């Protein structure tokens, strides 16, 4: 199998921790802060969350087809329960570069325990590497 000779542009992986009653805003930014158009987002769950902490897709076509299990989430839309070592890969853009609005997602509040999440973004074009400070980056409490 031969892989495409095109380069894949990406950011460093981000590790985020969400404590109890912390949620994330709806992620719908099709561009990075450094100007690249996001093609793919990969979310990898690194911990077991006792309750809450779902990743929800508020405008997914599947939002009304999901069976409701356990206590209702404060997030609307199709929700993915975090399970350690599982992940979600979503395409932020169509092959022609047009933004896919259904790829918008949000991190629902953790109700019990904590959630550790790794995020990787892949871009259509080269991006400037952001300067990072690991001590202050990505911890949500």
SSE string: EEEEEEEEEEE
Number of strands: 11
CATH class: Mainly Beta
What is the overall shape?
globular
Proportion in helices: under 10%
Report the CATH architecture.
Sandwich
What is the CATH topology descriptor? Jelly Rolls
Major sheet details: 6 strands, mixed
The number of helical runs is 0
Distance from N terminus to C terminus (CA atoms, Å) equals 45 Å
Strand content: 25-35%
Backbone CA Rg: 16 Å
Average of the residue pLDDT scores: 75
The low-pLDDT segments are 1-5, 131-141
In short:
It is built from no helices and 11 strands. It is an all-beta fold and 141 residues long.
SSE map:
Elements: E1 9-10, E2 14-18, E3 38-45, E4 51-52, E5 55-57, E6 78-80, E7 87-91, E8 106-107, E9 110-112, E10 115-123, E11 139-140
Parallel strand pairs: 2-11
Antiparallel strand pairs: 1-10, 2-10, 3-7, 3-10, 4-9, 5-6, 5-8
């Amino acid at each position: 199998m031969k892989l495409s000779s095109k380069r894949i542009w990406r950011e460093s992986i981000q590790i985020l921790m969400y404590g109890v009653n912390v949620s994330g805003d709806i992620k719908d930014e099709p561009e990075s802060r450094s100007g690249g158009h996001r093609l793919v987002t990969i979310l990898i769950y690194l911990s077991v969350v006792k309750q809450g902490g779902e990743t929800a897709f508020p405008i997914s076509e599947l939002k009304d087809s999901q069976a409701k299990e356990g206590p209702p989430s404060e997030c609307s839309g199709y929700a993915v329960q975090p399970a350690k070592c599982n992940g979600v890969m979503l395409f932020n853009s169509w092959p022609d570069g047009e933004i896919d609005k259904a790829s918008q997602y949000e991190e629902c509040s953790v109700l019990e325990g904590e959630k550790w999440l790794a995020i990787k973004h892949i871009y259509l074009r080269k991006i400037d590497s952001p300067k990072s400070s690991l001590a202050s980056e990505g911890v949500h409490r």
